[in-house]
Each structure stands twice: as structure tokens, then as C-alpha cells.
Specification:
The structure holds two protein chains of two kinds. By secondary structure, chain A is mainly α. Chain A is built from 16 helices and no strands. The N and C termini of chain A lie far apart (about 45 Å). In chain B, about 5% of the residues lie in helices and about 40% in strands. Classes of the chains: A mainly alpha, B mainly beta.
Chain lengths: ~300, ~500
């Protein structure tokens, strides 16, 4: 259930080691735990992931249980706040970058890709923190969760996204992740890889980037739009800003990392449903197909970086 | 015997080892246990009237061998239980003569206490089906394009004022006032109508006669007298009838509305916590109730663990509370789940109006209305779950809404738990007991043993380990007779009525 030898930080509260720890594949959990030497962070991360899934599922309902949604959203805010304040994100990202398993790479890649995105976003709008990251963390969670015993609904709904994610994660692998990475891909094309075919990405450049951003804000709304019953499309930006207004601006960069950390292909709930129906059967073969694409993706990345 | 046992009941003797102070010095009280089965889907065609026809089999009068046979039929029927049969609320009326249950299928079943008979005084206290009706139907809101479930969220009885009984039932959106009345006579001999109710041709009327009332078989009618709709955007979680007997409140996640029982086309919004921007929403209302005597006072609880007492005399809109009850958080037990487990699922005034009882995920608290900074008493309901909160969050059990009730004298409180367990706490002796409402463990005339959940490493005989608790069997809804030691406990699709032995 939980790697042996990890310490419980929740012990004073009598909390059991987070059972969701077993949601990550063994390789992932051990790697992270080793690097961070802290099961607490891992617990917190799984709790965050779990909460984001719950929030997303809430949103799929026309009229969700408001009390439940609010409590989950508050939990997410609380975790997010704590994570930005104790700076665990930096350690986490390095750990993930060093990790061997695809799921870890995936997250690392997302962080770095998103970094660029966040920079572009900062240029466009004054709001420093976006809920987008939260929403998308749910997608990356999905990979972490793969092969786990979570509820069937969750798994079946989410798994179709994984091929894209995994491919994104493989992009990161060969290049030896480092802080310089973000500079290298200043042109912001990297995130294109997440949502579109990599080949197109190379050619489309900035245009796609803009789409990407607009989509971001939409999905962000959707998560917290969960609360709204009468008007399903609440005003986006001030709300998102408000959500994280209590976060110390000095953690701006960390938070960018944080939101980036959670980044993954942009899909609204309905897209998700669609992909469920259309790509369902491909789920099982996703990891193997990713492997076969690895060389090709490497090549593409070389082009991107080289340019 | 009637047709297949899709509904049956059994009477059982059981020993509560209950802490009810009413029973004299003896701490042992014999209790009788009733078991109600919901009907299987096969009978869904006409469930409403068939329930009325059925005479419950009194198993206490039968031999042990027969009992086993009938229990087997329970097991078979159990597989037929559908989602619609799950009991979603249970409530005694103010005299305790009637007991109403509502289920997820929108049905209301009313039980009536059997009248005392000289030949069988020990049978006093048994409850038989009195009336069954479909209170709410599934609806579709075409404007918002969403389905409105028929599930009955709450039932509240109005104090009886004449021969008829009135109750309020609510689903997520609509409150209905039902009248339940008996009819044992019907008028005959109208001049303008024939026996079938058709208008007679005036030319055939040659003489006038005086209509007369003729006796007929007793019939219990339930008629919807008022429908209070279109006032709630969110889900109604509670309703409460005012002691002035003219008004009631209905509460959803963000608002409390005040209604006059006679007027259905308008209500007054007295609390509204909806932020201008829904993204800023961090707190919802979880329950609200009127003070039992002061018709201007009501209390509502929130998902952040606080209770607000409001005085309707101060302003039409009670956005400003007059009292705010909240316990400071203990930093030593702080975790990510602190807020979720402190969310209040139910709030109830004591009968005497001095106290408030609240239920959160792990505890029941009693608050003195004169002391806002901390509860008077805190009782642990299932503290052994404190170490399992993450799993309970994962499987969503942490959001279960357990209710709580007072006994008639406000000296004992009761609330539910998992594994079909329910808990009672004696406020005077500080003793508590865990009991189980379960078919498997309750044989006729058997003693209902207190249950224990083992927390430590070694499990003693008769103890249940925390890991083997069944979290799908939860007792959320219970009710206590207003004057006597009779309780009704809803366990999924079964209703258990336990009675403190009279003799």
C-alpha cells in the first residue's frame, strides 16, 4: 500500500498514511519518496490529485452536490496554498525530472512546457495564478493513476488522455531536464505537443499558442463553475484571480511551476467524454504505442530545439 | 398469510442494555424490534395501495421454526431491493402515534401505532402501515435541462389540530403539504347526481330526497393540499415548521426561505449567502431549524462547522446572525480533512429549546444557547475512523450526512454510524452504547447486544475490527418517539423500530 520506511508526517493528527499513495505506480512512488524523503509531500500530492479528479467529476454533473464540491475545492485551495508556501514544488520538479518512469517524466515535462505558457500568459493578463493548472492536474493525475484500483468510472473516463500525455513525457526524457530547458523553447511551441500532433506543432507556432491560452481559461472556469447552477458560464478572470489572491505574490514563480506542474492536454469535460467514446479501446495499448513513437518524437524535439 | 413476503415484519425481544433513564433502576430493558421490508421491483406496478392491504405477520406469535423460514424470504427479497427503496428520511409526528418514512423513489409510507388492546397488552407499540402515497415524481426542468430527482429529502409533521394529519415532504426543489385523513362514511342519495356521480337529466327528477351518509370500509386518503415550488435554485436540505403553526422554512445550500403554509405563490428569502461571484463560494448552509418555542428564532449550520442563530424580529433579511457558535480548531489534530470533517450535517434544537445539537463527521456536539465559544458536550461517534479519513475521502464516505436526534426528555441523544451501527449517549451518566440494526444479528426474542469496535491490535471476541466495517451499510436517519422510548432507525431499505419494554 505504501512504501516501507516512509515516515508519516500526519502522525500527530492520527492520520493513516495516505491510502491514495497506492495510486501511483510503484516506480513513481518509490522514486519520488526517495528523492524527497518525505511521504508527506507524496500524500499531499495524491490528495491533490484525488481532489482534482473529484472536482472534475463533480463538474460533469449538471447539478452537483454543492456542499461536496465546495469542501473539495476548499481542500484543493488549502493544499495549493501550503505547497506554494513551503516550496516543495522545486524539489518535486527536480525529483520528477530525475525519475525514470514515464509518469514522472510526464509531469516534469509539463512543468517546463507550461513555464513558457505561463510566461506568455503573464504578458497577456495581469493575473498571476490560474486555476488552469488545477484543472489540468487532473489530467496528469490520470497517468499517475494508471493501473490502479480507483473507481472504474474515473479510470475509464480518464485513460484515453494518456497517449498524449505519455508522448509528451517522452519528449522530456532524452534531453536531460534542466532549468535551461525553458529558455531553449522560448518560442512556446512545446505545449503544442501536448494537445496536437507534434508535426503540426512545428509549423503552427504562435497561432496555436493563442488557441491554447483561450482554451485554458475556459477549462479553468469549468472546474469552479461547478458551483454555478443557474449560469453555467461564470465570469472567468476575476474569479480565478480571486481564488488565489491570498497566495503571497513572492511565490509567483513557484506557483507558476505549480500550475505548470499540473499541466496536461486541454480538454473540457465534454471533450473528455467524446474521447472516451471514440478512443476508448486504444487505452490499453497506449504505453506501447508511446514507446514506438519515442524515436520520432525525439527527432521532432531536436527540430524544435534546434530551430 | 398473504402473498409473497415482499413486505413483512417481525417482532423481536432484544436487550438494549440501554441507558434510558426512564426505566427505573434496572439498566436492562427488553426491547421489541420490528423489521420492515420494502417491496421488490416486481410489485412496483401498484405499490402504493398494496402496502395498505398487507397485514404484517407478527412473528412474535409464531414458533421459532417458522421464523427461520420467513427470514430466508427476507434474504431473497434483499436482492430485489432497488435504489428507489432506500429510505431517505424517517420522522415521528408530535404525538408519536404516526411514523413517516420517505424513500428515494419519492414514496411516503406512514405507520400508525396499534391501539392498546386488553387481550394483548404486550402488543402495544407495534406500528402498522397506515397510508402509502407517491409524494414526488421525477421531473424534468426543461429550462435548465436537468432532471429533478423524486427522492424525499425530509418529512416534517405539523402538530395535529383536527382529525386529519398534515405533513410537509420535500425533494430537492419542491415542498408539498399533504393531508392524511380517514373516511369511513360516504354520502348517498344526491338529487342531481346518480350513484356513479353522473348528472341526472332534470326531467327525470320527480321528487326530492335528503342525502344520507352511509358507513363504508375505512379508507385513508392522502391528498396534496399545497405545492410550494420554484423558490429554490439549489438543493433543499431541510425544512422546519414554525411553532406559530403558520409558517415554515425551507433551506437549500445557499438560501433560507420563509413560507406561509397557506400561500404557495410567494416566499420570503430570509438568508442568502450566495456570493456575487460563485467562484468565491467557500461555505454552504447544511441544515436549518426553527426554535421549538420562540417563533422568531431559527438556527442554521454551515459546512465550516459553525451554527448561526438568527432573530427574525431584527430585520426581514437575517443575513446578520444574533449568535454564532463555533469551536476553535485544535491545532494538534489539524489536517487537510479538518474542514470536511467539521462540516455540520444536522442541527437540532432540544425539546426544551435550551440546547442545540450538531452532528459533524466524527462527533455529536451539544451547545448551550448561552455559550457560543465552545460546545457544552462533545461525544465521539466513531473516533476510530480518524485514522482512515483519506480512504473515506477517496470513497466519498466522508461526505455522508448523518443526522442526530434527542430523546423526549433531552437526556439521551442518538446518531448513526457505519456497519449498520447506531450510537446513543446518555448526557447525565456520560455512558454510551453502540447498537446494530441488522437482520442477520437479530433473531426473534434475542438480546440485542451492544457492539464494540476494536481499535487496538488485539481483537477480543465479539469485537469488530475497524477494517471489517461495512461502509456501504450506514445509518443516516433515525427518529425518537417524542414521549416514549421508541426509536426508528433506517438502515438502507429496512426500517427498524425498537421499543423499550413497557413491563
Amino acid at each position: 500500500m505504501f512504501p516501507k520506511g516512509t515516515k508519516r508526517k500526519f502522525s500527530d493528527s492520527g492520520e493513516e498514511p495516505v491510502s491514495s499513495g497506492d495510486q501511483s505506480p510503484p516506480a513513481a512512488s518509490s522514486a519520488v519518496a526517495r528523492t524527497l524523503s518525505s511521504s508527506y509531500s507524496l500524500q499531499r500530492q495524491s490528495l491533490l490529485d484525488m481532489s482534482l479528479i473529484k472536482l472534475q467529476l463533480c463538474h460533469m454533473l449538471v447539478e452537483p452536490n454543492l456542499c461536496r464540491s465546495v469542501l473539495i475545492a476548499n481542500t484543493v485551495r488549502q493544499i495549493q496554498e501550503e505547497m506554494t508556501q513551503d516550496g516543495t514544488w522545486q524539489i518535486m520538479t527536480q525529483a520528477l525530472a530525475a525519475a525514470q518512469c514515464p509518469a514522472d517524466r510526464l509531469v516534469a515535462t509539463e512543468v517546463l512546457c507550461r513555464q513558457t505558457d505561463a510566461a506568455a500568459q503573464a504578458g497577456q493578463s495581469p493575473k498571476p495564478f490560474s486555476v488552469v493548472g488545477l484543472e489540468e492536474g487532473y489530467h496528469s493525475e490520470e497517468v499517475v493513476m494508471e493501473g490502479d484500483v480507483e473507481t472504474e468510472v474515473t479510470m475509464s473516463t480518464l485513460s484515453p488522455v494518456s497517449p498524449q500525455l505519455s508522448s509528451a513525457s517522452y519528449l522530456a526524457g532524452p534531453f536531460g531536464m534542466g532549468p535551461c530547458w525553458e529558455e531553449e523553447e522560448e518560442d512556446g511551441e512545446c505545449e503544442e505537443d501536448e494537445e496536437e500532433d507534434s508535426e503540426e506543432c512545428v509549423s503552427e507556432g504562435e497561432e496555436g499558442d493563442r488557441d491554447h491560452l483561450s482554451e485554458d481559461s475556459r477549462t479553468g472556469e469549468q472546474v469552479f463553475g461547478t458551483f454555478e447552477i443557474k449560469h453555467p458560464a461564470p465570469p472567468p478572470d476575476p474569479a480565478l484571480e480571486e481564488l488565489f489572491s491570498d497566495v503571497d505574490p513572492s511565490y509567483y514563480d513557484l506557483d507558476t511551476v505549480l500550475t505548470g506542474m499540473q499541466a496536461a492536454p486541454k480538454m473540457g469535460p465534454y471533450d473528455l467524454l467524446e474521447s472516451l467514446s471514440s478512443h476508448g479501446p486504444t487505452t490499453l495499448s497506449s504505453s506501447s504505442s508511446c514507446r514506438s513513437d519515442l524515436n520520432e518524437l525525439d527527432h521532432i524535439m531536436e527540430i524544435i530545439v534546434g530551430s | 398469510m398473504h402473498e409473497p413476503c415482499w413486505w413483512s415484519s417481525c417482532c423481536e425481544r432484544a436487550d438494549f442494555k440501554l441507558l434510558l433513564s426512564g426505566g427505573g433502576s434496572s439498566e436492562r430493558h427488553i426491547c421489541s424490534l420490528w423489521l420492515l421490508k420494502s417491496q421488490p421491483p416486481g410489485s412496483m406496478g401498484g405499490p402504493v395501495c398494496r402496502l395498505q392491504d398487507s397485514e404484517p405477520a407478527n412473528l412474535s406469535m409464531e414458533e421459532e421454526s417458522d421464523t427461520r423460514k420467513i427470514n430466508n424470504s427476507f434474504l431473497r427479497d434483499h436482492n430485489y431491493a432497488t435504489e428507489a427503496d432506500i429510505i431517505s428520511t424517517v420522522e415521528f409526528n408530535s404525538s408519536g402515534e404516526l411514523l413517516a418514512t420517505g424513500d428515494k423513489g419519492g414514496r411516503v409510507v406512514v405507520f400508525q401505532r396499534e391501539q392498546e388492546s386488553k387481550s394483548q397488552p404486550q402488543r402495544r407499540g407495534e406500528y402498522n402501515v397506515y397510508s402509502t402515497f407517491q409524494s414526488h415524481e421525477p421531473e424534468f426542468d426543461y429550462l435548465k435541462s436537468l432532471e429533478i430527482e423524486e427522492k424525499i429529502n425530509k418529512i416534517k409533521w405539523l402538530p395535529q389540530q383536527n382529525a386529519a394529519y398534515f405533513l410537509l415532504s420535500t425533494n430537492d426543489k419542491t415542498v408539498k403539504l399533504w393531508k392524511i385523513s380517514e373516511r369511513d362514511k360516504r354520502p348517498e342519495g344526491y338529487n342531481l347526481k346518480d350513484e356513479d356521480g353522473r348528472i341526472r337529466n332534470p326531467s327525470t327528477i320527480t321528487s326530492l330526497r335528503v342525502p344520507v351518509l352511509q358507513p363504508m370500509d375505512l379508507m385513508v386518503e392522502a391528498t396534496a393540499r399545497r405545492v410550494f415550488s420554484n423558490a429554490h435554485t439549489y438543493h433543499i436540505n431541510s425544512i422546519s415548521v414554525n411553532s406559530d403553526l403558520q409558517t415554515f422554512i425551507s433551506t437549500d445550500d445557499l438560501r433560507v426561505n420563509l413560507w406561509n403554509l397557506e400561500i404557495t405563490d410567494r416566499s420570503f428569502n430570509i438568508v442568502d449567502i450566495k456570493p456575487a461571484n460563485m467562484e468565491e463560494l467557500t461555505e454552504v448552509i447544511t441544515s436549518a431549524e426553527f426554535h421549538p418555542q420562540q417563533c422568531h428564532t431559527f438556527a442554521y449550520s454551515s459546512s465550516k462547522g459553525s451554527i448561526r442563530l438568527c432573530d427574525m424580529r431584527q430585520a426581514a433579511l437575517c443575513d446578520k446572525h444574533c449568535k454564532y457558535f463555533e469551536e476553535p480548531e485544535d491545532p494538534s489534530t489539524r489536517s487537510f480533512f479538518s474542514e470536511i470533517i467539521s462540516s455540520i450535517s444536522d442541527v437540532k434544537f432540544s425539546h426544551n429549546g435550551r440546547y442545540l445539537m450538531t452532528r459533524d463527521y466524527l462527533t455529536v456536539k451539544v451547545w448551550d444557547l448561552q455559550m457560543e465559544n465552545k460546545p457544552l458536550e462533545t461525544y465521539q461517534v466513531h473516533d476510530y475512523l480518524r485514522g482512515k479519513l483519506c480512504s473515506l475521502y477517496e470513497n466519498d464516505c466522508i461526505f455522508d450526512k448523518f443526522e442526530c436526534v434527542w430523546n423526549g426528555s433531552d437526556s439521551v441523544i442518538m446518531t448513526g454510524s457505519y456497519n449498520n451501527f447506531f450510537r446513543m449517549f446518555d448526557r447525565n451518566t456520560k455512558r454510551d452504547v453502540t447498537l446494530e440494526a441488522s437482520r442477520e444479528n437479530s433473531k426473534p426474542r434475542a438480546i440485542l447486544k451492544p457492539r464494540k469496535v476494536c481499535v487496538g491490535g488485539k481483537r477480543r471476541k465479539d469485537e469488530i475490527s475497524v477494517d471489517s466495517l461495512d461502509f456501504s451499510k450506514k445509518i443516516l436517519h433515525t427518529t425518537w418517539h417524542p414521549h416514549e422510548n421508541i426509536i426508528a432507525v433506517a438502515a438502507t431499505n429496512n426500517l427498524y423500530i425498537f421499543q423499550d419494554k413497557v413491563n
